[in-house]
## 1
Amino acid sequence: DDLADEMEDADFDDEGAEEPDAEAWETEDDEGVEDGMEAQDDSEVTFSLHSASVFCVSLDPKTNTLAVTGGEDDKAFVWRVSDGELLFECSGHKDSVTCAGFSHDSVFVATGDMSGLIKVWRVDTKEEVWSFEVGDLEWMEWHPQAHVLLAGTADGNSWMWKIPSGDCKTFQGPACPATCGRILPDGKRAVVGYEDGTMRIWDLKQGTSLHVLKGQDGHQDPLTCVASNQDGSLIMTGSVDCHAKLVNSTTGKVVCVFKMESTAPKVPSSEGEEAESNSVESLGFCNVMPLAAVGYLDGTLAIYDLSTQTLRHKCQHESGIVQLLWEESSAVVYTCSLDGAVRLWDARSGKMISEYRGHSAEILDFAVNKDASIVVTTSGDHQAKVFCVQRPDR
């Protein structure tokens, strides 16, 4: 009996020791990490060389076998998607790497940090071939057909360089950050959105502004994202004002405005907060049907029909949408959100096709390969993950 009593005591002591851990888990749950979020991991490969949040990811366009990721640890890595094997580190950054991408032919990879240091590496030799320092970096993008890099900075300028020669041209915007930008498919023009709500279409060769949308034609708040359809005839802009504007890129005229009626916030909040609780975070055009998708911070994915200019479907997420991407050759749209999940939606029916989990924090960026068989995600949990999303209906 004595022995049994002692055993029971020991058991109780052990249980007591375990309790603080259990409590710690609960507090993490309260901070937004959902129950079971960490337990379920649908990913095939996890890349874990970053030691802080991973902000950006791009796949190499030519083979889709390499990924580049940049993070809050001031590091960027080029690694193999198939097994997470490190190819090389893009070293020398002294601030969070927020932009990273491969040139159209996968010959070069560029990495840019918040302070404005941009570096370009030759992928096959793993050698740095060019670097340049601008003001605080907002966004960066490669030209779709040439070794030309475009970037927007907090002083309102957009910069364009030939790589690796470094020949440079600047496009002077208003005296406020150039918050987002995109080179149009013709490679001759770029659309840039600014913090003051204006949008400009630039002629890249002449360095002149072809169209300026401001006032009623522009947005009332900072632009957050821009996109163009496949032939570049239509541009869509998204803003903190919760509007998405469809613009004819040739005439510079607004074709229509998609407004999301503000849904009441789930948690009662002070009036000031309520006004700021929503914004357009991401948008994009479908290649195979006249559809566009807009992702909002309140978790709404809106599918708009461009031919009738009407809302076709509203797909609700529990938490904010960070980014969305369309599949290249079907009416399927992918979303990643603050709850750490990737979801696939059928834009024709508005129904969710599948959901993939594996991160223990919000997803901050993601990329889909050309044949839509894999998704690579980056997260606040310091990891990048590769998910296989092959679907039986293909």
## 2
Amino acid sequence: TEIDWKAYMQEVEGFANGTLDYTQLKGDTGPLVYPAGFVYIFLGLYYATGRGADIRLAQYLFAGLYLLNLLLVFRIYCRTNKVPPYVFFFMCCASYRIHSIFVLRLFNDPVAMAILFLAINLFLEERWSWGCLLFSLAVSVKMNILLFAPGLLFLLLQRFGLLGCIPKLCICALLQVILGLPFLLVNPVGYLTRSFDLGRQFQFKWTVNWRFLPEEVFQNRAFHAALLLAHLAGLGLFALHRWHRSKESILALLKNPAERKHPSPPLTVNNILWQACRVCPLNASAQIVFVLFSSNFLGVCCSRSLHYQFYVWYFHTLPYLLWCSPTAKLAHMPKVLLLGVIELCWNTYPSTVCSSLSLHICHGLVLLQLWYGTAPPPALHTPPPSRRPAAISKKAQ
């Protein structure tokens, strides 16, 4: 269980010793492949734990991170008011794999996700600039946060229009430049190719989701291209038909929000509170969370490979994705069962043909529920008025 932690410490130790060439930062598991934010955060852990020697202290720190992460997630769920309270028990107590990822293996994935959930809390409070800053910080710890980026871009366009979202995107880009500047000045190509390598090959023996495929298919570039196309198609369909609720064309998102044709919101208690406190009303909070969580889930479904620590990428979002649509009383148990099967798939080591197929089936069921459960209600068609004159009653005659 110490393999990844020791490798992280070896990677940041080179930076602590003055190495600024990113290609020279390595550990027992191979070269450093994470952006600069990872280096700074784990450098702090390196010094806090006596150059990585006090692993017990590191586990205590990650236990605190686990509790903080739960607090941030619960705050998001309370703001949306979609998930029944008993589901939180499964989120806290029912996942051996998540506990292992946080407290036993000390991966960097939980660090990135905790920062991401903090950013989402800021989005819900209408603090978009600070939220974008923390979103970019999460990306600098691990690139999987980019799976949320299509949803965030949609929300920024929806909220600010094209010209208004440019400063927010500049905040994201500027932080990446500032964090990576020491390495960019020494070997810019080495830093960019190592920390943002989108074409990196994964080992077949660690895959959780594609075990049922032959290894030659798993490594085939055509298969990777097909997954990318499926991902883009899924994002396009959700953006057009599930995220975009206005009757206007989706191109209207490029306009200034004041110039769009939409009716003024009704004067409800939620909207009065939003005007007074600059906090999203309940329906707006649910929309923000739905767009971000579904954007990430589409990316997870189309990932070239999922390793065991990647479970934390979407574990805390699954209850919302399952309960974000209206649920009949008898439909709760199948959703709980679905969570249990997904957990079982992630706890099967090594993965098998059965476990990987089951995981894809569960992901497919969640996607179907998202697609049909969040469909806009059908328009009510009133029957056209009859052209025949109304019959005259005998009394009128």
## 3
Amino acid sequence: ALESIDFKNALEQFQDLVEKMIIQKTKESSGLCTDGDDIDYDKFYSTTQTLFGPAVKDQNIQAFFRRIMSNPDERPEWPEIFGCFTGERDGMSSPSKENMVLLISEKQQITHSVVKRKDIIKGIVKVPLLHLTITASQRGVLTVFNKQKILFSYSFYFHQDTAWITGCDYLPNLKYVVAVTESTIILWDYKSKESKSDGFVIKPMKNCLLCVCTVTMADNLAKDTILMGDYKGYVYLLTITSDDFIMKQSKTGKVSQFKVLDSESFDIPKRKLHDDWVGKVKYFPALKRFGSCSTDSINSFVLDDIKRLEDQLPVKEFSVPKGVNAFTYCGKAKVIVTGG
């Protein structure tokens, strides 16, 4: 419905309409006379319908108008005219499965508890090709879901040296779940036939690791590469092959069913890109670039080739006051969005 109109222009006109209503209501509340061109509900309804057509519903127009009239100082956001974000606040029913402007899926609740009290989820990763979702809790619970239920779960609660998980991802070639803690890297073979708690732990890591992501490349089915960020501003590059699981086992034994791999036996290039904690790392296959962000106000966001982690050539970066906490890339619009 909205493809036939200039949505940006319509939105600007709608926001002008809301501003006039707020000014009108403010004058009325102060006992001042208006200019006579008052905007009542009928005029607001007809104007909104003209601007957006069937994309807006009667109940959402009513709720939006009521909110402005009842409290003009706390103006509603424009998505609410399309039924977004209203929820139960206005006594209306929840939004439909699909909205004409913003696509919203209904919530789907997993009834099984995946974390204990006083624990929190630190990472959620979707694996679209396998229709899986992976979560990692701060205190060490790794869980693999499909759309209906929990498929695999393992708890590191009782392994003190592998507790406090800070991030997770999926290794598509090796078919492992990877998670990082303050001092270790966990590789969980969640589909192991021998035991659901089979896998490897790479340790020790000298700096506290804060985030991890997979570098998606289809050039070799026997290895995976990951990026990690730490609390000193370093970004690490680690490539793991199936042979590493056999050749680099430590003599120190096991952590439960998890075999220990000595971190000193791996070549792990790293480079200091930020002067504060690395909040997030992400690889974008479409750009063939990785991104990393930090609360550092000078080196806030870096976007460059992963080869820059192995040399000292300048990196593409920009500064944001108080830094960047999150970022993502939209391939359709060809833009990167950051949040500070």
## 4
Amino acid sequence: IGRLKTTRGGPTRRRRPAQDQRGPLQYHPRRDTSNAKQSNCLTEPSNHSLHTFFLRVFQNSRALFLRTFGLPFARYLNFILPSEFKMSLNGFGEHTRSASHAGSWYNANQRDLDRQLTKWLDNAGPRIGTARALISPHAGYSYCGETAAYAFKQVVSSAVERVFILGPSHVVALNGCAITTCSKYRTPLGDLIVDHKINEELRATRHFDLMDRRDEESEHSIEMQLPFIAKVMGSKRYTIVPVLVGSLPGSRQQTYGNIFAHYMEDPRNLFVISSDFCHWGERFSFSPYDRHSSIPIYEQITNMDKQGMSAIETLNPAAFNDYLKKTQNTICGRNPILIMLQAAEHFRISNNHTHEFRFLHYTQSNKVRSSVDSSVSYASGVLFVHPN
């Protein structure tokens, strides 16, 4: 049972093109970013054949069975099997996800990577508060490592016991969110332990599927946050909760926001939101600019990104959704960001706290001056919570 991957609403598995360290190649999220159409991934072509109909019926029935009986059945097996055969209740097996992008997207050598992260964090200036959540880019470190350090500089390790990592799916189509079946995530700086208890709680809501192991190894959005987490947390004992985020119509944004608001209320939890900003150029099928303006294209991109950053800083999910509809900006982590905004709003309404989101750094992989150029933008920001 545990090895079967289920998705809500039938099969949606489609692999995406290869990527480089700046971001996805030949792909951008759907241009219609209305609540009903938002998607981080390619969609299955329609097929009305009888074979497809029965396949969907079978897979929907299988998904319903697993969501209903999977966890109780795993508990039953844990009760009757000898200890050497027991499986983890959250994800059916004790596996370690490899550091699959080490050596290409970031340094695989422990000493060199640690030295590099230390340099970036030291250059990020003083800590200005205690992060409850942060937005960090997920490109190759040579492009975005310096920017990511500004957000991670605000993490106070002594206050954190658990790190939720929400990253968009670049590899496979996904409806809603999925959690890992692994017990550890490997980094050159040491293994990070997955929080099985929280995974069980999330799975029990019936709003979380399980990541496919092969897709999980291929995905980079979560992995690129891990070395920074390992670095800033040091030797402190803590756990991680990796969450892969797919398509989220408006009502599901609120559903996941309400679920995660419960955990955001706990100051021992840190949320890391993985997202790059504008993917501009023909290879992303997104290259809007004012041809008659004297403002360079890269500055026009900056202005568009900073409008989105300002919308996020309002901590108003509707403002960010409106911005996405208006600009169609290819912010790949928009759905993880919207979950954070929904959770923060729910938390703010139910508690006597003042919330502040502040962006600290912004860069681009390339200063676009010609319509044949391309670039990916990176921004880092932090959510601070102040009790009244």
